Amino acid sequence: MSYPPSLQAVVDELGRFPGVGPKSAQRIAFWLMRQPTEDVRRLSQSLDDMKENLSFCERCCNFAESGGLCPICADDRRDQTTICVVESPPDVVAVERSRAFHGTYHVLHGLLSPLEGVTPDRLRIQELLTRLHGPVKEVILCFNANLEGDATAMYLGRLLQVPGLVVSQPANGLPVGGDLEFADDLTLSRAITGRRVLAD
Amino acid sequence: MSYPPSLQAVVDELGRFPGVGPKSAQRIAFWLMRQPTEDVRRLSQSLDDMKENLSFCERCCNFAESGGLCPICADDRRDQTTICVVESPPDVVAVERSRAFHGTYHVLHGLLSPLEGVTPDRLRIQELLTRLHGPVKEVILCFNANLEGDATAMYLGRLLQVPGLVVSQPANGLPVGGDLEFADDLTLSRAITGRRVLAD
Fold first, then answer.
1. Residues of B with Cβ-Cβ distance to A2 under 8 angstroms
2. pTM of the shown model
3. Which chain B residue is nearest to residue A27, measuring alpha carbons?
């Protein structure tokens, strides 16, 4: 004896979610069964809406509603000569929050990771290279400071050796409000190597 | 700047799932965006189907497809005089797998837990009491051997003090294939207290 087919179908679909195992899928399915029908209909409707209305910006590959360009690429006031390359859409939100960047973005949708089978052709690198034919003067490689981030930055750094194009990375260093005593060795070493001159 | 509304709607809906936090909801939503449209449509369709076709058995409160009775309650060959009371539908599947029980079930959809606000009126206890007007001779209280399970068994044990009705619980003891050395004190104590006589 097993579950009724219509319940099993939901358990199977939920079990495909990243980070959701069979046990969690079952718990979520039971929880959904106990929710009002209109709540579950709202969920399924939101899924259909998302797939229908949301696509990827044809320039920067970030999410864009109703096709074409995303709000940032479509904004004439943004500096089209500078591209900040990031791993994923949340990074765009994070950099926007910093209010320190007024150029455009490019979302790779991943970082290079040979061990997990993420090779350059799995990322939106070709789309980035196409953009270099435009008025681009600087590309900022803004990735997490880990193995995958460094590997992707190194790969792109070599690939983007184009005359007249500046390729940069954000500074590594002590986080603002961070405690010197608790900084890890690598962060402290990079902070000291990249020290700023206050008076000369 | 935040996410497009149709993406945010999905993140919000997924974030309501039990055991799924805002970060996981975001990861799942991004993953769904990368899936083929027909896969996501199949998921939303399965949710709608489940809410439409699946309901609760009007006798045992387990899941039942297309209304009325579940397959077990509808099966004339099952012993209608014995009811195995369990916490949730997976427990029915587990007991069925044991092939040791041929009666019917009653699913409470929870266990008593005053700390988490689960009081008797939140469980399907009234439906169980209604069933006692039928030809029921024995009720087996088959709950997890923890605080909530013991509390629920104790509560129901008192409630079911009806002349001619046997209320029982499965034996506690050493799991088959288990190692005596690694059995916890309570299990071992219950196994010895409930020892079986082999020869007399």
1. 93
2. 0.72
3. B18
Shortest alpha-carbon distance between residue B160 and chain A (Å): 27
Inspect the interface and report whether the beta carbons of A27 and B46 lie closer than 8 Å: no
Segment A92-102 mean pLDDT = 88
Of A4, A46, A64, the CB nearest to B63: A4
Note the pLDDT tens digit of each residue in B34-77.
899 999 999 999 999 998 888 899 999 999 887 789 989 999 99
**A50–B33 C-beta distance less than 8 A:** yes
A89 contacts B30? CB cut-off 8 A:
yes
Q: Domains of chain B: which residue ranges?
A: 76-195
- CA–CA distance, B107 with B124 (Å, rounded to integer): 7
Q: Which residue of A has its CA nearest to B30?
A: A89
DSSP conformation letters of chain B: ----HHHHHHHHHHHTSTT--HHHHHHHHHHHHHS-HHHHHHHHHHHHHHHHHEEE-TTT-SEEETSS--HHHH-TTSEEEEEEEESSHHHHHHHHHHT---EEEEE-SS--BGGGTB-GGGTTHHHHHHHTTSS--EEEE---SSHHHHHHHHHHHHHT--TT-EEE-PPP-PPTT--GGG--HHHHHHHHHTPPPS--
B162 to chain A, minimum CA–CA distance in Å?
Answer: 31
Please answer yes or no on whether A43 and B47 come within 8 Å at the CB atom: yes
Q: Write down the pLDDT at residue B159.
A: 93
- Average of per-residue pLDDT across B191-197: 80
CATH of A76-195, one of 3.40.30.10, 3.40.50.970, 3.40.1360.10, 3.40.50.2300: 3.40.1360.10
CA A120 to chain centre: 15
Interface test with A, best of B6, B7, B23, B78 (most A CBs within 10 A): B6
pLDDT (tens digit, 9 = 90+) per residue, A64-83? 887 789 989 999 999 999 99
pLDDT at B156: 94
